[in-house]
Design brief:
With 305 residues, this protein is an alpha/beta fold. It is built from 13 helices and 7 strands. It folds into 2 domains: 206 residues, 3-Layer(aba) Sandwich (Rossmann fold), CATH 3.40.50.1010; 78 residues, Orthogonal Bundle (DNA polymerase, domain 1), CATH 1.10.150.20.
């Protein structure tokens, strides 16, 4: 992607997790694993080289238990094994490295990375700047405006609202309702029994949103689709679960992130701190130089400290 991209928002935790599994184990001078850190920084260098962002932020999950969503439903993400302590440590190191490089990081207690990306993208939208969202999470499709793109880096092509329609049969603004109806196995959200992806899409195509759907349940029986006559009773019986699901699937856009686009411009890094960090964590000098060069070339004139 050679064209200059105004704003790039990265779901950092996903790419740290991939590096944790994909890169061979490496130890720093204290004998602690750093392979996820090294792999993540290599990913970050390539991302900046390929996208040339004017604004950039890395969003991290500050709460591995799901934050406020776990209080809404204790089952939320409860099926996932605990994050290994060595990976948690490298997540903090990745944040430290990004800060030393002069990059904006976002990690706020009680919020997930998705909410931080959603809130930052709202800042850019208010200033008329398109966003490129780097993530493998389909939930982020709900954030896409006409000029925004979602990209699972190196695994598929970036896509915009038209890609959401092609993949799910609904508009971006309907994704949260779609997941509330059909469920989301990756987050342990149980949908309405008997309503799968196709039925959820069909219902939203017919009624627009979950609120109108629940307000007009008798009209469901007239739809020309299999099992339409039973749907009013099924949806009414699971009304409370649906509304709870909707609180889980909706990405927040009101997290306390910086509210000016200028706050996401890369700033001059801490050269002395970077050298010490690289030595302490056995970071190859060529990777450090590559990162610094990518940021300087790819993001335009750097802001001061």
């Amino acid at each position: 992607m050679a064209a200059l991209i105004p704003a790039v928002l990265v779901d950092a935790s996903i790419y740290l997790f991939r590096a944790w599994h994909a890169w061979p184990e490496r130890l720093d001078r204290d004998g602690q694993p750093v392979h996820a850190l090294h792999g993540f920084l290599a990913f970050l260098a390539e991302l900046i080289e390929r996208t040339h962002p004017r604004h950039l932020a890395l969003a991290f999950d500050a709460d591995p238990d799901g934050g406020f969503r776990r209080r809404i439903d204790p089952r939320y993400k409860a099926h996932r094994p605990p994050t290994p302590p060595a990976l948690l440590r490298q997540r903090e190191l990745a944040r430290e490295a990004a800060g030393l490089l002069g990059l904006r990081t976002l990690a706020i207690a009680d919020f997930e990375a998705d909410d931080l990306i959603g809130s930052a993208s709202a800042v850019f939208a208010r200033e008329g700047l398109p966003s490129l969202l780097i993530s493998a999470d389909k939930d982020l499709g709900q954030l896409l405006g006409p000029c925004d793109r979602l990209w699972d880096f190196d695994r598929q092509r970036p896509f915009g609202p038209e890609g959401v329609r092609e993949r799910f049969g609904v508009e971006p603004a309907q994704i949260a309702d779609y997941l509330a109806l059909a469920g989301d196995a990756s987050d342990n959200i149980r949908g309405v029994p008997g309503i799968g992806a196709r039925t959820a899409a069909r219902l939203l195509q017919a009624f627009g949103d979950l609120e109108r759907l629940l307000a007009e349940l008798p009209a469901l029986a007239r739809l020309s689709m299999r099992g339409a006559r039973r749907l009013p009773d099924v949806l009414n019986a699971h009304r409370a679960e649906l509304m709870r699901n909707r609180l889980l699937t909706a990405i927040r856009r009101d997290a306390p992130v910086p509210t000016e686009a200028s706050a996401y411009r890369p700033r001059s890094g801490d050269t002395v701190g970077l050298e010490a960090f690289a030595e302490r964590h056995s970071l190859p000098h060529r990777l450090l130089l590559r990162l610094i060069a990518a940021i300087e070339r790819g993001t335009g004139p750097l802001s001061g400290p």
